[in-house]
Amino acid sequence: MSALTESAPGYRAGRTLPLRVELVRQLKRRRTLAMGAVLAILPFVMIVAFAIGGTPGSDGDGDGDGGGRLNLMDTATASGANFAAVCLFVSAGFLLVVPVALFFGDTVASEASWSSLRYLLAAPVPRARLLWSKLAVAMLMSLAAMVLLPVVALAAGTAAYGWGPLALPTGGSLGTAEAVPRLALVIAFIFVSQLVTGGLGFWLSTKTDAPLGAVGGAVGLTIIGSVLDQVTALGTWRDFLPAHWQFAWADALQPQLEWSGMLKGSAISVTYALVLFALAFRNFSRKDIVS
Question: What is the 3-state secondary structure (H, E, C) of 178-214?
């Protein structure tokens, strides 16, 4: 920002592009409404599927999902809390990746594709201020997406299966007073673990003028990470992959809460995300804006 602009009467860089303005702009977009509708409809689709298909997990082979991590499907219809946990389980691996990639990857690239980015900066909105505003709104909207699905699932599951304790696949149950905080902890961990995808989308959004490229790149790289985690030949190197810890929240749905896996996964995800956010700010500060 030039000295002339800084000395302009009444100008305050911190007052440009208020968060509420950016938030309202993003909430009104059709892709936001469409994504919210998909997340809100999913629990009802699963209820219909369970009603048609019968008791979840009754496939007769007795080995659950075979992944060895967590099998909640057998308890899906035990209570509304169980149904909410199952909705998180089936969507955390991919479905919840999409809104995060969308909200972060669409930040700067969409403005560039509309040829409005240079006009925002000419307002004048400092580059760092613009990125911080968009980053904060992307985080808020991603968190809202993480909360929307289990809240709708809890309400729909309670209406369909009743309100009761959270039945654990390992045996026993958690009372209502303890189940809700555990589910909140699960949501918080999933959100933190998805910050890597958000960081990828945010960084790519400053590198390209194509929103689809940034969003698709973030989703694609996240999938590649999940594939690499299945390569057992990597040994302990997999511990440094964010995807290796994506189901560590299963430790929150056990009789005794275990923190180690979630803490390790959170540390890995936050570290990667901070590096990617820093790269995004560095790239955008040096980028020639022609769009």
Answer: HHHHHHHHHHHHHHHHCHHHHHHHHHHHCCCCCHHHH
